[in-house]
Amino acid sequence: MESAIAEHLKCPRTRHRRVEDDYTPPYPVWSARAPTSVTQVVMGCFGVQSRGPDMQGRACAALQKIVRSFALPDGPGHHDLTHFVDADGFDNMIAIAYWHDAAAHARWLATPEIDAWWRADERLTEGLGYFREIASPRVEHFETMFNTPDRMEGIGVVMGDVSGELQEHGYWGSMRDRIPLSQTDALAPSGMRAVVAGTPAWGQRVRIAGHENIAMIRSGQEWTDTTGQERTLYLEDMEPVLREGMDFLRDQGLAIGCYSNRYMHHLDAAGAPLQKSFGLSYWRSLADMERWAESHPTHVAIFGSFMRYVQALNFQLQLRVYHEVSVLKADEQSYEYINCHARSGLMNGLAMT
Predict the structure, then answer these.
(1) Of the listed 78, 79, 83, 323, which one is catalytic?
(2) CB neighbours of 217 closer than 8 A, spacing ≥ 6?
(3) Intervals of CATH 3.30.70.100 along the chain
(4) In the chain, pLDDT over 90 holds for what percent of residues?
(5) What CATH class is the domain 42-137+193-210+331-340?
(6) What confidence score (pLDDT) does residue 293 get?
(7) CA-wise closest residue to 219 among 159, 145, 169, 283
(8) From the CB of residue 24, how many other CB atoms can be counted at a distance below 10 Å?
(9) What is the pLDDT of residue 353?
(10) How confident is the model at residue 352 (pLDDT cuts 50, 70, 90)?
(11) 211 is a catalytic site residue
């Protein structure tokens, strides 16, 4: 068993873990590992927003154009195609792309054809919305966890290696304990989100500045390999409870510190749904996320349904679950929206009333 914090990221602790050194977790999990040469990664959401079936073909074509650009020099090492319907009834098709080198991402983004396409006036007149939400955490600022070591998701795909079994999990507060910076930092938020260009509304190009220590989580599940009792338990008992919690954060999350939540479903290259999903949410702070996880009725219900699920199966799961959590400095965030409605992403709650 080993620490979730890689050896080269360990330092003398000034803030204690929530468990003692001899703690033994109840079941195994693993973390993605990167070479010591990796110092900063990039997680980018490239989205196309539309409304109604008449616009879906155009939105799919726009997303496909974005995905083709990933093949240009310095493109991402991995991407997922996803779909989400937001609280206002808009379809959001999103390519989530991952780089293990922030400099490569910057070069790719500056490629003339990519930059010119994004800046073109046509983006405001096509009847579609576009957005880029880019998180670029340094390696001290994020953690990953997987319940199997043989199939990575998200940033884990590009990190290149996997840990041994981890000690820091299976208790409240373990998410924080897995983040290297938590050894010496409270990860407290400061400042506020701000509109730095445009006005959150239709027909606008809008840029949002994040504040210090916004927390971002991607938490997912894949049920492709489940059969029989396990498949029934997931689809009929666990998933409806999960969906209810995701919808709560989408619709009412601002009041508890959740700026944005998307319950996203994977698509294949032809746009057909896969048996994989995840929640992607941004929070004012890690502490706000922890409070929801530990005590809010919607997450207590999710946790309870998961525990009933694993106990019914005696911890022998074919369901794959994982998450990646980042605590982002202000300079590790970039949020841009073109012709999107005012409650999209990190614009949520910032429009003038």
Answers:
(1) 323
(2) 279, 280, 281, 283, 289, 323, 324, 325, 326
(3) 7-38+139-190+212-328
(4) 81
(5) alpha beta
(6) 85
(7) 145
(8) 8
(9) 47
(10) low
(11) no
